[in-house]
Specification:
By secondary structure, the protein is of the alpha/beta class. Helices cover 46% and strands 13% of the residues.
């Protein structure tokens, strides 16, 4: 069977949330290098302006907008600006999100709802107007590509990351449903499943949780750079795949845990013992300030 031809990404516009740092910023640079105009969304205007200038200095095209993904109108405005500036929207990478390390019974309703507002509903806020643009695009062939930045934890939650894992599982399942719903339209849907990534994620976890993250001390073999994820995103834009895993070891490990429930218990139990040794398991502090991420 012949391998499908790679999609030429030159001139195809990409919209990215959570673009001010980490995976979002690395993906913006990688997409721009592949010839894609990029629209950058996040809360930190100074970071976005700096990133856009960096892309333009390298010969790329970029626009940015300071926004909060929890604001549906702002997400639609970013998509509209991208379509007007670049002649359409081909790709959307819903990447904004954050984590919180806490026992489920210790989390307040506000903390749980706010995490879903950003990680899950914030993704939907960006994806839905982008899909409207993609389906309205004229012509035949590829019309668009939706990418949800899920997580390896979408398949198996870790203790104290129940809420975060739940938001990522929701993204994964929504992506799977959309993939079936949009089949035959020319719009592809992928879910991206990074492992531990060397970004500000763990700093945010520590700041919001008031304790150093357990998974921050994961073996280096299971950690990766944001550039690794960015390269994987560009590869799947060129040759679409349903799921993007940046670690085959973790992917097969998750599959084993799903097939043999309980096989992961020794590892999980060690994590719980370590957490209890390092903390009195106090209630997590209330979240203050803006809801959004990035």
């Amino acid at each position: 069977m012949e391998r499908a031809m790679a999609i030429d990404l030159g001139g195809r516009a990409m919209v990215i949330s959570g673009a001010s740092s980490g995976i979002g910023a690395a993906t913006a640079l990688a997409c721009a290098q592949a010839g894609m105009p990029v629209a950058l969304g996040a809360r930190r205007a100074d970071r976005l302006a700096e990133l856009a200038a960096q892309i333009e200095a390298r010969g790329g095209r970029a626009l940015w907008m300071a926004m909060d993904v929890a604001d549906a109108a702002a997400c639609r405005a970013l998509v509209d600006r991208a379509a007007e500036a670049f002649g359409g929207v081909y790709g959307v990478f819903a990447n904004a999100g954050y984590g919180l390390e806490a026992a489920v019974h210790r989390m307040s309703d506000a903390q749980l709802r706010e995490m879903f507002e950003v990680n899950f509903f914030g993704s939907l806020n960006l994806i839905r107007p982008a899909v409207e643009r993609m389906l309205a695009a004229p012509g035949q062939g590829p019309r668009g590509h939706v990418l949800w930045c899920s997580s390896c934890l979408a398949r198996m939650p870790l203790p104290y990351y129940g809420a975060y894992s739940a938001t990522k599982a929701a993204q994964h399942h929504m992506g799977r449903a959309m993939r079936a719903e949009l089949r035959g339209t020319g719009v592809r849907v992928s879910t991206v499943h990074p492992v531990g990534t060397k970004t500000e994620f763990f700093d945010t976890v520590q700041r919001r949780s008031g304790i150093a993250s357990l998974i921050q001390h994961t073996s280096g073999r299971l950690m990766q750079s944001p550039e690794t994820v960015a390269r994987a995103v560009v590869r799947t834009l060129r040759r679409p795949r349903a799921e993007v895993w940046t670690s085959l070891v973790v992917r097969w490990g998750m599959a084993l845990c799903a097939a043999m429930p309980g096989v992961e218990d020794p590892v999980i139990n060690r994590m719980v013992r370590r957490r209890r040794a390092n903390s009195s398991d106090q209630p997590t502090p209330a979240i203050t300030g803006q809801v959004g991420a990035g």
